[in-house]
Design brief:
7 strands
Length: about 170
Amino acid sequence: MMARVCSKLALRPFLPADAPLLAEIFRASIAELTSDDYSATQQEAWASTADDEAAFAARLANALTLLGTIDGSPLGFASLAGAERIDMLYVHPAAAGQGVGTMLIDALEKLAASRGAGRLTADVSDSAQDFFRRRGFVATQRNSVPLGNEWLANTTMEKRLPAKEGAQ
């Protein structure tokens, strides 16, 4: 009989001590998962937004930030800013396609809906649009975002959420 190893996906809340590791996940995700859509200088400008570790940690702490883990190791994170806006969703390239991003988005959707939000919005990189589209998000607006000396394009996407249970 062969033993089968199953990795266990789980969620946990952000802790301030997580900020350096999440900054590394952020940078690795940009470096390895966005090169088909963004130039090296655009990627560098984008990744540099995590260089100020205190500001990056504050951004995570000021939102509802969840970590996706596999066997206890954080491999991705997502944050909900306010009631309806997904501020960040990043998964380490080594864990891409293993369900971490889906688990994070599903959790944010449930949390937002339970708080009465009627929709979720996200400013989605060109590289992540298919991921969001498969989860029911639709494009509503194209954006150009200045970062340092670069301009990055992204798309605002939206998903309508079901009405909160028990609401009349």
